Amino acid sequence: MTSCISKIKKILTASLLVFSIFSSAHIFAETVSDSVYNYSLDIPEGFMLNEVSDDQLSYHFIHPNYPVQFIIKIYDHPGYDSSSKVLDRALKNLNAAMEIDTFAWNNSPECAISDFSMTLDTKYSGWAVCAPLQKENAYVALFAYAPADKRQSCNQFIMSILNSLCTDENYYCFPGIIASYAYPYEGKKNIKLNIDGKVVPTYIDNCDIDAAQFVLEMEYAVLLLYEKHNLWKEAWQRYYRMVYRDSYGRLAQVSYDVISQLYPQCERKNPVNPNLEYAQTILSWVQGFQYKRDNEKASNTDFTNLPAVLCGKGNDCDSRSMLVCVLLRAAGLESFMLVSREYSHAMTTFENPAPGQKYEVEGTGRKFLMGETTAKVTWGTIAQEHSDRKKWIPVILP
Predict the structure, then answer these.
(1) Across the chain, how many H-helices and E-strands are there?
(2) Cα 363 from chain centroid?
(3) Could you give the CA distance from residue 341 to residue 14 in angstroms, rounded to a whole number?
(4) Which pLDDT tens digit goes with each residue over 245-278?
(5) pTM here?
(6) How many degrees, rounded to 5, is the angle at CA 71 between CA 70 and CA 77?
């Protein structure tokens, strides 16, 4: 069935109506997780838990200012043997009209997705996904929906919820379930990276640029809703987390090849502190990028997706900083991003005892060297006009 894929991709061309969610009502944001079934969701800010079933296998969430609801339901019974059957049964119990398609996602050979509509107190429509859990014969199904007359304007918000699902922590930083369905693997796209005078041959997938852009546009549409909200900082942090989660997995082979080629060389150059040598090699590489926008992708996000960066299609301070984080964290080195609305800028950080300007993570005592990606300087060297730590927002990455 290709109709679901077509509908998902067309969402990016639809206008997104910004509802008035900027009230003074107390709302909160947190990751929804379950330690028994080992799944999690990194949902947009503001959702409230409205109802829990007696068996604690069903959870209903509502948003006080946005017309989107979602349900998490766990199915744990020997009689369940496929995601599509579970989803079909669940939607039939709701008397929903539906289309169901199946696909592979990460280590799950068969997941299911549905575009559905139903009538409860009013007419609703939305998207649902179902995936097997690590426990045998157990599945998680998510249903995210809005009033039918508001569905089109809520599509990206709905999909952002579903795409944040994780059913295996080993695949936490890999493309989400919606992105994986809309953009299945197409085959290798060979690229060559010139880093510190060394050519590193590697590859991404042929769909990665378009798929990463899909996620970027989806999450940016959600971010815009919080522009004037009291949780705007948390919304920024989630936006970058969601983009990072997708990017890290798409660049898994790139990271492996870069580390394999460069780290041994860095150990020889600086046996006392090879981590610093490697981090500086990566930082110097991105500092040498020629700044340019990706003119091939019409976007208001002011962010070039990382597969596009690697293919020379554009870059900016946000994408450079995230790329450094990906390549450091893949090497087992602690790193996170710093973003600033006041400075309209982004930087990267790296935990290392070397001297220099550092950012201390509040409440931990841990200090990270600050890295400027747009000027040719070393770790720990930042401009005086960017030195106010209070104007930087840490984006702690998963």
Answers:
(1) 10, 16
(2) 25
(3) 28
(4) 999 999 999 999 999 999 999 999 999 999 999 9
(5) 0.92
(6) 155
